Amino acid sequence: MAGHGSTLKPGKYEHYKGNYYEVIDVARHSETGELLVAYRPLYGEGALWVRPLDMFTETVTVNGQTRPRFRYSGDT
């Protein structure tokens, strides 16, 4: 994916709160070199957003259970 050494695949992801998002690609910040995920919600206006890759792929604890913030759920 985009030659950035990321294992994140494009496609549909489910947020731990239940909404779905389409991951477009992973990009590199021009000043810091940080990897950013470009994605858009599959609801509402569908605006394009970016989030640091580390934050996108981190886990969260909800009601005592650890789960991924975003879970891959297939191609869009």
TrEMBL record:
Originating organism: Pseudohongiella nitratireducens
Kindly list the organism's lineage.
Bacteria, Pseudomonadati, Pseudomonadota, Gammaproteobacteria, Pseudomonadales
Q: Name one Pfam family in it.
A: DUF1653
- The residue ranges of the DUF1653 domain are 11-71
Identify the domain of life.
Answer: Bacteria
Q: What is this protein called?
A: DUF1653 domain-containing protein
| InterPro entries given in the database record | DUF1653-like_dom, DUF1653-like_dom_sf
